[in-house]
Amino acid sequence: MADLTYASLNNWLKFKHLVLLETLARTNNMHLAAEQMNLSQPAVSKMLKEIEGLLGFPVFERLPRNMPVTALGEHVIRYAQRVLNDAKHFVEDIEILRLGGHGFLKVGGIFAATAVVIPNSIIEIKKQWPLLSIDVVEQTSDHLMEMLSEHTLDLAIGRFTDVTQSQFFDFQPLGPEPFCIVVNSAHPCAKKINCTLEELLNWPWLLYPKGTPIRERMEGAFARAKVKIPSNTVNTMSMQTFLQILKGAPMVGMLPEAMVIDQVKEGHLQILETDLILDAQDYGILTRKDEPVSDIAAAFINILLKNEKHK
């Protein structure tokens, strides 16, 4: 087998091969992949052998019950996902422009950003491009960077959670994300001048799920305050769930100030002063390193930076 070259890849590899790779990686099953692609299983098997023959290594392991991706195959699958997502984005853009629209923008944000920063900037960019179609995804920073890598987002607003991430993404800071302890206005602690942390720990808490970067920072805050993490908790990443439960039940939440400030102003929620402090961490604009953004994405980034400067 000759060595893999750009010319051989360019002359032979087709979109249907990339679709097969992505479908197999998603299903881990030859029969399911064949069904989803509307092909026979022998045809899928033959196509995969041709792909692996061109690459010179197996992309999938052949096990009795499934087909996990090999270590080298992971690189191939990520490439297939990027190309297919770019193609999908291209088709959406062209179709919107053909129908008289102004293109497509896909933005991701952490919860604090989707509460205020992103909506305000969308309002402004829609004044410039009224027919611009915008998708907004709310997720944790780690998931947003995965989506950026897969080219399912044009840009994201989040934060680095690992030092190695700066190798792959550029970061433009927008500002700190302060957190607060909050209860509803009918909560017994809302009526006290000083509600101790020990008292608050007797109530059920709303927290982010275990394993998320924010939860890890929360656990650090409890450790610094020398108290145990509450055992009576509801764990969610849904901002809407957070706010609805907080407004309707005597619970305690630790949330970004941006998420609750309007509810506080309206008198539904109240911020408490406690010894539990979660250090503010800068969030900002994340884009793929060494890859230019579209004109529309660049305009949106400029609006984000301008709005933060004028705060």
UniProtKB/TrEMBL annotation:
Please give the InterPro entries that the UniProt record associates with this protein.
Answer: HTH-type_LysR_regulators (IPR050950), LysR_HTH_N (IPR000847), LysR_subst-bd (IPR005119), WH-like_DNA-bd_sf (IPR036388), WH_DNA-bd_sf (IPR036390)
Keyword terms of this UniProt record:
DNA-binding, Transcription, Transcription regulation
The UniProt entry's GO CC annotations, sorted and at most eight, read:
cytosol
Q: Which GO terms describe its molecular function?
A: DNA binding; DNA-binding transcription factor activity
Keyword Transcription part of the UniProt annotation: yes
HTH lysR-type domain sequence ranges: 13-70
PROSITE patterns the record matches:
HTH_LYSR
User: Would the keyword Heme turn up in this protein's UniProt record?
Assistant: no
Q: Which family does it belong to?
A: Belongs to the LysR transcriptional regulatory family.
This chain belongs to which protein, by name?
HTH lysR-type domain-containing protein
Species of origin reads Acinetobacter vivianii
